[in-house]
Amino acid sequence: MSERPYQICANCIMDTTDPNIVFDQNNECDYCNNFQKVILPNWHTDERGEAELIKVAEKIRKDGQGRDFDCIIGLSGGLDSSYCTYIVKERMGLRPLLFHVDAGWNTDQAVGNIEKLVDGLGLDLYTEVIDWEEMKDLQVAFLKAQISDQDLPQDTAFFSMLYKFARQHKIKYVLTGGNFSTECCREPEEWGGYPGIDRTLIHDIHSRFGSRPLTTFPIVDILTYKIYYKYALGMEVYRPLNVVPYLKKDAEQKLGKLFGWEPFIHKHHESRFTRFYEDYWMPRKFGYEKRRAHFSSLIMTGQMTRQEALERISKPELDEHFLQQEFEYVAHKLDLSVDELQQIFDGKNKTYHDYKNKRFLIGLGSKAMAMLGLEKRLFR
């Protein structure tokens, strides 16, 4: 079979490195069309959004009477979760518990941002530290599996621990920084955008390449929290940033002015592993640039011009010397030699299809949510 001719969207910068991208007669991609036809008509940050924010706040506040906290927020120190925290406390008037999961890869800047928000807003923070030996073992197993989904171990730890803690302490409302403004263009599945926590996939990869049991590592399967936690336990996930004006630069400036919060060079740079994975491992090993989706979201929402995005993506976010240092740092932290990590990097690329998984069931759930209007981003 001949390779697909290269093509790039005329509106954003998504291209045929997403093998399933579809272009219309105007050379605009299905992400842009989905944004215009599905997201934009249902995205209200005006008076309608304000009314919804007030209504939800009143509901959460009423249900939280007599409790120490009326909701919980997973806080990474990055922009989205940080601004969500500010909105929840200052605009919604709620009493959130800030919940942070330390998976061993926090940057000093992320830790500093968390401390500044906690102090500035007068909120309580609970930090759960993942067992490093188990975290390390699972991450090395995923690297050896040669798939593009290298952030699944961290994401699994973050979200599983958050949902488990909320369930154990009977906190009904989970508020997140997920939003359309900076994330309306979802990263394609081939780029490591596996759609949820798949216990089957994780256990199969770990059984093949892991070396120690995951006795404490939290794994809450996507079907568990999407179905059991929601419908049996009544847990609700709410995204305040979708109903308030939220522009990346304005939010960074506001948090900086109010709390001394410091912006990152790029999205997801609060984690040292994610920064390495997205800036080095993914583009050089697999040829995928997650920045294309990040920048395309900003293009669609009017926060970046297409030309600015093309210029920025033409070169790495971080210089070569720094990236080589990070390669060595990641290797040593994972108890691998630089040569061992290089051998993994040079190995044959695979996909999740090479391992046991329940992607089909997850896909059915995603399609059902889209049909019900509960998911508006493009899932294939």
| CA-based shape | globular
Largest sheet: 5 strands, parallel
CATH superfamily: HUPs
Number of strands: 5
Spatial extent as radius of gyration: 20 Å
Structural class: alpha/beta
The proportion of residues forming helix, as a percent range, comes to 40-55%
Q: How would you spell out the order of helices and strands?
A: HHEHEHEHHEHHEHHHHHHH
Average pLDDT, rounded to a whole number, is 94
Number of helices: 15
How would you summarize the topology of this molecule?
Blueprint: H1 30-39, H2 47-63, E1 71-74, H3 79-91, E2 96-102, H4 108-121, E3 124-129, H5 132-145, H6 152-168, E4 173-175, H7 199-209, H8 222-232, E5 236-238, H9 248-259, H10 272-286, H11 290-300, H12 306-313, H13 320-333, H14 338-346, H15 359-371
Parallel strand pairs: 1-2, 1-4, 2-3, 4-5
Q: How does this model look, in words?
A:
This protein is an alpha/beta fold. The chain has a single domain (44-371), classed as HUPs (Rossmann fold), CATH 3.40.50.620. The protein has helices spanning 30-39, 47-63, 79-91, 108-121, 132-145, 152-168, 199-209, 222-232, 248-259, 272-286, 290-300, 306-313, 320-333, 338-346, 359-371; strands at 71-74, 96-102, 124-129, 173-175, 236-238. The chain has a 5-stranded parallel β-sheet, sandwiched between helices. Helix 5 packs across helix 6 (152-168), helix 5 (132-145) crosses helix 7 (199-209) and helix 10 (272-286) packs across helix 13. It is globular. The two termini are 23 Å apart. The model has no long low-confidence stretch (mean pLDDT 94).
